[in-house]
Amino acid sequence: MGLGNWLRSIFILHMFVATLSSSNPERLAQISADFLDYAREPEISEWMVGIRRIIHENPELGFEEFETSKLIRTELDKMDIPYRFPVAVTGVVGFIGTGEPPFVAIRADMDALAMQEGVEWEHKSKIPGKMHACGHDAHVAMLLGAAKVLQKHRHDLQGTVVLVFQPAEERHGGAKKMLETGILENIDAIFGLHVSPRVPIGSVASRSGPVLAACGFFDAVISGKGGHAALPQHSIDPILAASNVIVSLQQLVSREADPLDSQVVTVAKFKGGGAFNVIPDSVTIGGTFRAFSKESFLQLKQRIEEVITLQSSVQRCNATVHFNDPFYPVTANNKDLHKHFQNVAGDMLGTQNIKEMPLVMGAEDFSFFAEAIPGYFYYLGMKNETRGQLELGHSPYYTVNEDALPYGAALHASLATRYLLEYQQPITTSPKESLHDEL
User: Fold this and answer.
1) pLDDT above 90 as % of the chain
2) pLDDT tens digit string along 338-373?
3) Are 411 and 380 in contact (CB under 8 A)?
4) Are 170 and 111 in contact, with CB atoms under 8 Å apart?
5) CA 63 to chain centre
6) Where are the beta strands (DSSP E) in 248-340?
């Protein structure tokens, strides 16, 4: 190729990228509209519903999502999308696009909950004591739907979209395990969503900055001396000690925390004794604590341990306290990604359908991603007044409005595609820096 033709080709390529850049908002808005139209096509939407129902019937707990992972890999193979497996035991990481920077990730969690489903319907859980009661089955279906949208438009991608199918969100910190593998190094931004029964269908909700609280769990064994309930003077009563501990723990927030600094301490487990007339040797209590700042969270942790051990000693008991690992950090949304989200969601759904999300004391292990990578987490509406009220997550009567699936798939795909178009940067990658050579 002559120098003149080479320069002309470079100019045409530059002009093509420019037409897709943020300087052409109408073209960007059209991308969002086109993706939603495609995700709504019966062939795509009904396929996502089918995927979601298969996963719902076969729920798997954290780091046990072997069949779910197999289904994901089968669908990615059908779409000719390369992936890495296993990542953090059962996780799958797929790649669509050029295989080169910039890299943007979209994430879905895969695990179910240890609870018996109470909803009687055709696709009820087939596994006793396990249920998708938090919408993770829908999250996987929507990310696969986004993969289908992106793969169709892969030649338009100005970089690489990374599909993150994450295990063990519920308590086990699967996001942290995935980060530790190094597979997500060099990612420039990551987006995650959660279906919401309180946000209307066709709407989304989020906010800039903190969205969800830091979270920890604790267990404590309070030991005394058992004996006959009619002769308490010969015993050291751990039930009395535990009762005083619980009352004292509730004062950590009401008496020690700044009223303007949201914090929670809840004791949700109390096990001790097995007879009406026997004082047991020991009692086990457990619960959770949450806060919106690292300082407040660590202060709560310190005081929980002090209260349990010292208050137990007042009642002549001994106590050992154990905290879970890992603690979930505060889930905080990147300010610049918040603007990006508002633009993309506004173009797709209308600005009137973007809601301000109030702070919630719930927790999400997406927080590990957002702590390591610029991240953004939002809620996808599925509330439909004509279908009655939907239960909140972690209820045995939890259900998913499957009409929300096309919205989630299209938003995933649009947020990633437009990020690559709007945030293009000339990045030189050395062989040592590239972790995506499999493309």
Assistant:
1) 88
2) 999 999 999 999 999 999 999 999 999 999 999 999
3) yes
4) yes
5) 15
6) 263-271, 278-279, 282-291, 318-323, 331-333
Asked if residue 266 lies in contact with residue 328, where contact means CB atoms within 8 angstroms, the answer is no
Under DSSP, the state recorded for 275 is S
Q: Are 285 and 307 in contact (CB under 8 A)?
A: no
Closest CA relative to residue 249, chosen from 303, 285, 174, 181? 303
Q: Are 81 and 149 in contact (CB under 8 A)?
A: no
The conformation of residue 437, written as its DSSP 8-state character, comes to T
Torsion of CA 226, 228, 231, 236, to 10 degrees: 10
Q: How many CB atoms lie within 10 A of CB 89?
A: 17
Bridge pairing between strands 354-356 and 204-206: parallel
Q: How far apart are CA 377 and CA 363, in angstroms?
A: 12
Pairing of the two strands 103-109 and 160-166: parallel
Phi–psi pair at 284, nearest 5 degrees: -115, 130
For residues 304 and 265, what is the distance between their CA atoms, to the nearest angstrom? 9
Residue 141 tokens read as: 């279906």
Listed in order, strand segments (DSSP E) in 272-351 are 278-279, 282-291, 318-323, 331-333
Q: Which residue has the tokens 């004591």?
A: 129
- Structural tokens at position 227: 């004996």
Contacts 24+ apart (CB under 8 A), 262-266: 262/213, 262/291, 262/292, 262/359, 262/361, 263/289, 263/290, 263/291, 263/292, 263/296, 263/300, 264/213, 264/288, 264/289, 264/290, 264/291, 264/361, 265/289, 265/300, 265/304
The rounded distance, in Å, linking the Cα atoms of 98 and 439 is 8
**What is the tens place of the pLDDT at every residue in 222-238?**
999 999 999 999 999 99
